[in-house]
Design a protein that fits this description.
29% of the residues lie in helices and 24% in strands. It is built from four helices and five strands. A three-stranded antiparallel beta sheet has the order 3-5-4, with helices on one face. A hairpin with a 2-residue loop joins β4 and β5. It starts with a helix and ends with a strand.
């Protein structure tokens, strides 16, 4: 098990759930203070340690023992957005590509794609991805693909 400082340094002191900065000097009892979220696989290998990620205490408490939900920002115009954590996990295992949202314009899809690639660079740093906006049915499909 790693120390809070080790986990924080690996995460560049950003909460993996909300992507906001975490103050390393704040009390661990403060809702915005640092905490370690131990993420276990659904079928962990025998003896495999849990993956440790940095989270605000409030974000970690709110998530509890359920699957994490990383929200799409309300500033993006996306329809039927895919769950980000599950999509990243699936693409890390299987590779390939997935439609992750629908957008009314190409510009909306490109903005959402730029945000998603940036967010995944911190959420799943070992997963290299690209996005494309593909027209279809009077809308644009945002496609996330492994590089």
């Amino acid at each position: 098990m790693s120390t809070l400082t080790e986990v924080g340094d690996r995460a560049d002191w950003r909460c993996w759930l909300c992507d906001e900065p975490v103050d390393p000097d704040m009390s661990v009892n403060d809702p915005r203070g640092p905490s370690i979220d131990a993420v276990t696989a659904e079928k962990p290998k025998k003896g495999a340690p849990a993956q440790e990620r940095l989270a605000h205490r409030a974000c970690n408490t709110r998530k509890g023992a359920v699957k994490a939900v990383v929200p799409w920002p309300s500033s993006l115009f996306v329809v039927d957005p895919a769950p980000i954590v599950e999509t990243a996990d699936r693409l890390a295992r299987k590779r390939g590509r997935e439609v992750v949202a629908r957008c009314p314009t190409r510009d909306d899809a490109e903005q959402a794609g730029a945000w998603l690639v940036d967010r995944l660079s911190r959420l799943a740093p070992d997963l290299a991805v690209t996005t494309t906006a593909q027209p279809g049915g009077g809308q644009f499909l945002l496609v996330l693909a492994t590089a």
